[in-house]
Design brief:
about 180 residues; mainly alpha
Length: about 180
Amino acid sequence: MARYQPLSPDQMTAERQAVYDDIEKSRGSVRGPFPLMLHNAGLASAAQELGGYARFESKIEPRLLEFAAAVLARFWGAHVEWIAHSRLAVEAGLESAIIEALRDGLTPDFVQKDEKAIYDFLMMLLTTSQVDDATYDRCLETLGERGLIDLMAIVTHYTVINMTLNTFQVPVPGGVETPSF
């Protein structure tokens, strides 16, 4: 059960309504962590801006961007984000076997070097809070400087989103099976 109540129409100040409208315009609906974040319109706006950049303006191709978002969702155990981004990653061209391995808590067998470089970079960063030179250099070679900076925007945004979803126990959408991890 969620640890928050969505705002009622009479709680929608002009500032909250403006942020709500921006989120709806950008994403098509206000879902995931955003109904909760609207309790703090400034935070909702900042998260919307960073997320909009990370997801829609990044120089990282959709297959790799959605893969990174799925890795982060799986690492943090955020069901709402996993459901969305694991599907989007496959739709963008990621092999479903990679998503299945991630879901099961396994290291995927990679065919594509770019996917392995991103996975290794993310897992090292997430598990040790550092990235060694060899892993950094491989990811830099794969993505370029701008792409690596964009990857860090993805890490920053989705870590905030995943932790928020988990902390406030935001439920998966109705009718969708909750993953068992």
